Amino acid sequence: MGVAVALLWLCTGFLQGARAQGVYAPPTVRIVHSGHTCNVEEEHYSERVYTIREGETLELQCLVTGHPRPQIRWTKTAGGASDRQGDSTLHNETLKITNISRHTGGRYYCKAENGLGSPAIRSIRVDVYYLDDPVITVHQSVGESKEQFYFERTVFLRCVASSNPPVHYSWRRGREALTQGSDAGVEIYEPFFTQGETKILKLKNLRPQDYASYTCTSSVRSVCGISDKSATFRLNNRTAPPSIKLLLDDPLVVKPGETITLVCVPSGGDPSPSLLWVRPGGEELPKRSVVNGGTLTIPTVTVDDGGAYSCVASNNVGNPAKKSTTILVRGLRKGRFWITPDPYHNDDNIQIGREVKISCQVEATPPEELQFGWLKNGRPLRSSERMVITHSDPEVTPGTTNLDIIDLKFTDFGTYTCVASLRNGGTPEISIDVNISSTTVPPELSVPRGRSHLVAQEGDTVDLQCLVSGKPKPIILWSRGEESGGAAAGLMPDGSEQTESYDGVLRITNVSREMGGTFCCRTSQYNGFNVKPREALIQLVVQYPPMVEPAFTEIRQALGRAFSLTCRLLRAHPARLLRYEWKLGARLLTVGQFGDQQGDTSYLVKALNREGYGEYTCDITNEAGAGRCTFLVTGKAYAPEFYYDTHSALWQNRPRVYGFKLQWTQMEPNAVDRILAYRLSIRQMSQARWWEQEIAMETSIQRGELLTYNLTELIKPESYLVRLTPITRYGEGDVTERTITYSAPVNPHLREFQCGFEDEALCLFSQDKTDVFDWTRHSAATRDTKYTPNTGPSADHSGSKQGFYMYIEASRPRQEGDEARLLSPTFNMNAKTSSSSSSSSVTNSPTYCFAFYYHMYGKHVGALNVFLRQKTPAVTNSSVWSLTGNQGDRWRQAKVNIHPTSAFQLVMEGVRGAGIEGDIAIDDVSIKEGECKDPPPNNLRSLATPSSAHIWQLCVTLSLALIGWQR
Fold it and tell me: What are all long-range contacts of 834-840, with beta carbons under 8 Å and residues at least 24 apart?
């Protein structure tokens, strides 16, 4: 008896397991394609490769299952020169790229996640095919290179075209096709290092007949419908590489504001070369410039326009010709001076009887025209034994002049002026005055009393000041101290590493916490004494209010429950004497002060009542202000979660209307009070009016429980917007929406189905988007047997050469194991109900006979498989028939009984064998209700899963047999 009980328990457990699969499920992902694809194939059994032509529209769809409805995100890795025009993430089921470019190719990922388990990720590699126009370039052998292509010279015509997949080339001379060996004076080859990107035509010892038009045709053999492209070059005895000359001075010296014109003309070359003006390093030409052929015009020239300019000429013969010129814009800038006391004494002061040197520096263009003059009290000063004037090398920039005063005397006190100018004029002079007197002293630097440690509030304006004395008064350089920390922290408020100040004041507006730290003021070594810089430090402390978390959060609770609210302190300055204050609305709840090591504060609600709903705030304060945590405590129910994987959700009950099985789960139903009802709102998409009704909930809803409501009287073919709102004693909860779209079912009540593939619609058969390649509709009258004569049918099943059938082509690029799947329409089965003497009834799934003709001829034939795909909540494929190998050059019929338990499809799968002689064809497919009569005696097998009723009958039968055996 124990064995029978165990068997019954096993059967019961099997049925419960089959029916109790949870509604909540982690996501699954599948990528399908639509749009203009050339081919989709599997690579290394793990990645799908999608091939598309450049300029077409890429459209990929991410099909997901799982509950709650997974969130979808498309991302791309760098497979091309750039991501999808800067948009690397897309939150949508469909990824669509119009006018796709070669740089947009790469690997695209679809990621789906719903918080259950690990995210589901699938990828597909997009391979963009293209073919650019070919370019023919002509070269002579290096040892024989001349200005022109004379007789008895060897000439190379090189053809280059960018493409994907690799390009194939062919050459013609006039109308004559050139191949290797067709002409003793012609040799065609590919350089090893180019990997098929280049095809070279070598003309050995030029002959008169070699002077002709040469055409290079590049081809990718019409993949993706890409047409061949051609380029033509006319070779004659005048063919020569380009040469050019510049009609201007080099260098070209101009004054600011002038308009300059650079003229470049070809001096040789056939064909006539094209001319291009460029700047070195890829720098752009001035925006104001105008280019007309070989003439470059720059109006109102500025100092920034100075530099090198190059004219490049090319005609695809030999190497491009290039000549350059330099534009020098006259000018003087950045005048500076410094005073150097006697370097032989350790003293920074100027003293009578000692040496002092005055230096003056100016940047000049052109530097060789820079000239200096010195004045004392307005009168010219010449070099002498005591007043030594020296100049730096004129080729060195910036130019520098020095005035050395030997054995300084009282009579040497006065104003010395350094005058810089250009020898040929055309630009204003620069004059720099330097006073030497008893009051000329080196600088001293200090910080005002009480200003070396500053405290500021974030957002204030603060002035940092250093007092500088001395004559002449130097420029002050401000920088950040090293202890400020980090590369970014070491930058000044304007983003620079150093800031100049003429009055010693550094003003920082809207000061931020990042600006806190040490600032250094330092005297410059120019426009003053050339002595060791004087420095001073100022410490800036920036106070800011406490930073807290969470800034805002919503908490949902049922009445009578206890819960705690916690506000966490992240950072604050100052971090001492922190206080907290809890409020509900305007009502004060509690106050307190933080301890030394305390990092948060909490408030406990012991039992929530209706007055306890509302907005709780916690303010944490210091001297600089307050940080606030906000908690919204509410009894609102969470949003319902629509169930999108409902099997057979849509049905037709009358000709003009349809019904829809609306299913959903409730998110966190136990977080708040029991849900009393749902408000169902529905409106037709083309109208603004809503219809509403309430769906009462008599009992508590459990997490993951699937709720169902049937919508009826929906008008074909209209779509509807459905809104669902949960209601508790607190009131209405969060709303969720979905759109219901009508789709006409195929064969809603199947009795008999037949298809001979005679029409292009294929009787609503469709190609599977997840396989490697597709089935092809064909007739023997148009079948090409040039490459595979020993495979495939010579007529359709009826013997007609004009009749059509479906077949898989085993020729290249197909590989062994490639799969092609053809999907039948979706059929809704006819359930049979048998009544007994009791009031109950039993629903039996009907049996159907699936029959078709197949042709499997060829020594490389792979396999033909048939699967039953059932539209249950988890779509399943069950093998019902399979056959492999060569079956001879004739049509054979297969029949098999199938036992679907829900809406279903038949999947016809052809698998490519080991070679090209492996075409497989099918014809005259039929599905009829009832058992098959006289099925053919071949290896047919029915593997469809029996219904649960059959399982119960089997379990009861086995149990009774065991009980009888034990007796």
Answer: none
Among residues 109, 107, 23, 112, the alpha carbon closest in space to that of 64 is found at 112
Residues 6+ apart with CB under 8 A from 795: 780, 801, 803
Q: Is 704 left (phi over 0), alpha (psi -120 to 50) or beta?
A: left
Task: Give the separation between CA 259 and CA 253, rounded to whole angstroms.
Answer: 12
Q: How many residues does the chain have?
A: 967
3-class secondary-structure state, position 197: coil
pLDDT digits (tens, 9 = 90+) for 11-45: 444 333 333 345 899 999 988 877 666 776 655 44
Nearest partner of 468 among 413, 415, 527, judged by Cα = 527
Token duo for residue 395 = 């080729």
Q: How far is CA 417 from CA 374, 414, 666, 820, in A?
A: 6, 10, 89, 92
Q: Confirm if 64 and 116 have CB atoms less than 8 A apart.
A: no
Give the closest residue to 277 by CA, choosing from 288, 266, 293: 293
pLDDT beyond 60 at 369: yes
pLDDT in tens, 488-499: 557 898 888 999
Evaluate the omega torsion of the peptide bond into residue 165 and state whether it is cis, within 30 degrees of 0. yes
C-alpha dist (Å) from residue 488 to 480, 482, 495, 511: 11, 11, 9, 15
DSSP, res 940 = B
Q: Is 386 left (phi over 0), alpha (psi -120 to 50) or beta?
A: alpha
For residue 261, the cross-strand partners are: 297
User: Which carries the bigger pLDDT value, residue 829 or residue 791?
Assistant: 791
| DSSP labels, 32-91 | EEEES-SEEEEETTTEEEEEEETTS-EEEEEEEEEESPPEEEEEE--SSSSSSTT--EE-
pTM over 0.85: no
**What region does 334 belong to: left with phi over 0, alpha with psi -120 to 50, or beta?**
left
